[in-house]
Amino acid sequence: MADTAAVVFDFDRTLIDGDSDNWVVTEMGLTQLFRELYSTMPWTSLMNRMMVELHTQGKAAEDIEECLKRMPLHPRVIESIRAAHRNGCDLRIISDANRFFIETILKHHGLLDCFTEIVTNPAFVDAEGRLNIVPFHDSADSPHGCSLCPPNMCKGLVLKRIQAADSEIRNRRYIYLGDGKGDYCPCLKLGTRDFVVPRKSFPLWKLIFNDQTLIKAVIHEWSDGEELAAILLDIIDRILMDENTRTGLTASPDDGCKTTPVSNP
Ligand SMILES: [Mg+2]
Ligand SMILES: [Zn+2]
């Protein structure tokens, strides 16, 4: 099983049910300022501006951490990530949120070590203790040139880079889970042996079913964390069975993701 399956998650409204940026804005009382500035600057700059505001109000990075730790994460999703990792899947995140938010949430739930890579907008706490969020692509200096994606990140380019780096791994198959417009570009880069798992009725799902012929990968839709987790583990099981058929092995109970319900703390 090792090396065969790579799972690529979007973060907001996929790995977590809600949106981490909106959560911090709402929970930390920034809704009004956010609304005032919303139309005046790109999303990542706006989130950085929100961090300036929190710093001005005397809020520390630790206060933002505490706020993020309260964000709900579906227990089944936690279990499915642990099971996928235990079974040798390569897990990655490609997200337009930021490193500080994502790592804080994953660390809090004991999941950070399950991921090989998190590709997102960089974030760091400076000498004054203020959290800075900067765009992944500097659109002014080096535009990524993809018309489907927002200026700061083309997730399709990121996936292509991962696929190229994986080219030595035989029979690698990708499972891409997402919800947003920005997840459409990478889904176009998946092949017939791959899987795309869009959240039902969300923008990615609408784009996919607008013209399904453009997607080569097998499509499985989901609505909530419970369904997401079940579909993910089913696909991994199917990949495992295909792999065993290909190599002439029979599936043993120790190999599959379906094996045991996860009882990790
Ligand atoms: Mg999303
Ligand atoms: Zn793109």
TrEMBL record:
Its cofactor is Mg(2+). The keyword RNA-binding does not apply. Pfam families: Put_Phosphatase (PF06888). Mg(2+) binds at residues 10, 12, 179. InterPro entries: HAD-like_sf, HAD_hydro_PyrdxlP_Pase-like, HAD_sf, Pase_PHOSPHO-typ. The active site is at 10 (nucleophile), 12 (proton donor). Gene3D superfamilies: HAD superfamily/HAD-like. The keyword Magnesium applies. Substrate binds at residues 21, 96. Keywords: Hydrolase, Magnesium, Metal-binding. GO terms for molecular function: metal ion binding; phosphatase activity. This is Uncharacterized protein. It comes from Eucalyptus grandis.
